[in-house]
Amino acid sequence: MSELFEAVDALVASRAPLPSAQERKRLRQAHGLTLEEVAAALKVRRATVSGWESLKKTVEPRGPEREAYARLLNKLAELYPASPPVREGTVAPAVLDTFTAAPAPTEAQTPPTGPAPGTATATATENTRINPGHPPAALAVTPTPENPQINPGPPPPVPPTAPASTRTTGSTSTSRRRSARKAPAGGPAGGSDPRCENGPLAVVDVDTDGQVLAYCTGGLVLDVPATSLPALVEWTLQEARLGQPRLSGPGKDADPLLVLTEAALERYGLPVALTEEERLAGRLPEGHKVIKQLTRADWKLTKRGLGPWARIYRPATGSGRACVQLCIPSWHALDARHWGNAAQLPPADLARVLGVYASRVMTPRGSTAVTGLELMTALHPPTRASEPDADGRRHSERNPGSLGKEPVDCAPCEAPDGHPLLEDLPRFHVRGPDEKLFEEAYDWARPMTDAECTLRHLVGIDVNMAFAAGANGLIVGLGAPTHVTTPVFDPTLPGSWLVDLSHVDLSSVKVGKEWVELDGDLLPSPFTPKGERPEGPAWYATPTVSYAVELGYEVRPLEAYVRYDNGRYLDGWYQRLRDAYLATMADLGVHADMAPADFLAAMDGYQSRDPQLAIVAAAIKATVKGGLGKLRERPRGEGWRPGQPWRALARPTWRPDIRAAVISRTRINLHRKIVKHAAFTGQYPVAVLSDCVVYAAGGPSPLDFLPYREDKPLSGGFKLGINPGLVKHEGTQSVLWGEEVRERFDAPELNLARYIKDGTVTDVDNGE
Fold first, then answer.
1. What pLDDT, on the 0 to 100 scale, is given for residue 135?
2. Fewest CB within 10 angstroms: 366, 526, 616, 634, which?
3. What value, to the nearest 5°, has the Cα angle with vertex 107 and ends 105 and 111?
């Protein structure tokens, strides 16, 4: 009887109904299978499986292949039930893997409640139009891609991003939805902004069947019907539902970001790589056929043109924006120094990396440096809507706490060489410390003492996000400087001070409320980047002068440029980057408040646990340093000559005084810990480079010289941990290595902190 039943089952299966060709393709892609894999499993040709999925002329399988194919589709349908019907060619439902808890919410980001497990992926439906602008506001203001529009409304919640783990097979990479992420504990309920429901960005690629796909954050994959770049821009704004809500009430929403792979570039008529001439120009020539297509479709490009980071827009009407940003990795948009191998990742993986960065920092606006600067503006937009006047109309006014929308001149001492303020100086004049503010990071080293040479190891420790920590709580100027002659020093007043600090003797300083005796010859001076004791009056930022007072010495400034309009402009910037970094490191297994030994163990090889998230962590750190560097951006070619203005000077965010204050405070924070450590332990650093300090020690671990007692660090000294301002292990080499390197290069004061990480020294580095 069983044989009869089996024969009946086989007969039924031989005529088993199959889903539509579109559904067959959806199920295969949802499980991350290629046509080749299905063909190999069913022992048929790839073209046969492709015919079974063809929308134009579907070929039906027969015989035992049909039975096996039906069995495959039935199992996949159980894993990936169909979503509600959608317009053909608009959305390819995909799947979401949760890999991490959401980042801690900040003031600018309130995480909404996610869908319940098992719910279908949100899709873009027919006739749905994305409005990339703000809700209407009663403002007679026309925004542009370079200038934020005014919107007095409250910021909408930021949609959560749950980047998917991906499965790569052959040349395609798709993702799976196994469960939908819930909102973080304690987060308020609420949905995401429907205009941005598919995330902030998409990686556009072409699969082996020639279909253009947009890989979004969270594992969503959209079918792209556009056949040209202008059509792709239209589709992005009309149907894709990409973007990111503003980070501050009066700010602007982030424009959708499209990342074009090499296959997508070829599909849309763009070169896979720039020529040397185009690379140097940073853009395609104006006569390129794709630029002509955009022009005919009434799309415009910003001044940067069609380059690695391009912005395509139409002039805004009312409060709406029509702008899409392109990122082209093969044109070196993702600098390997900051993004590692991100440019070589499969589309779904790249969408994950950029999506995590966007959700925790912001949608990239260019390099990490550009994004760091743009984040400052996004958190403190230059303008806001005023209260209604007598006629009920609102007007544009300066947003309190921002830098405004007009640039301000720096003080002459703060101006870098070649600035228009210095055009009257003789051509080859070299400004000394009494003419130029020179607040830079440490680059100091000294020969080892005989006692240090008897120890076996050189151990480097590195301050986590040192410059971000230096920005936290720092009062900086918001407006133009005021020149004051014979001022009385005020530590609460940001500015630049001409003062003689040569009388400060590090052999006898105040630590807290007590005077302590130190070996001043073994310490770097806190007042110069090279650690040399100043020889007379010099210009310093407020934190440096404040530290001289803290050490117990009197200061008498000769003159100053101070800023009475000031505030804690960088606090929100610091907090967002701190939260982004801590959340990413927690995903990598490194948590705040770990015991010292556990922390060191967790940091050992953390990048290998998830190389993609390690890329995000590195990019976040690069965003800090790069953003601060942009505050004093120098000329970048363009035929510039000394004495002439350059493009960056037109930005309100060109503020060398803010950069100097952050670097000053960062250097002082480090010196304070060095002094505290020396006073308590009698140990002195051998070398200091920026945020890395090297000590001679009897063992290879930081715990061999840091004074921990029952996991409690020295108060005010170095503390192991992942939070900004705390330290991690940078590297360990032998004392013999250090002496051999210095002898080989005949450089007794070679900065060993530069090479402590891996011990590789290829040539003497002058620090430039």
1. 35
2. 634
3. 35
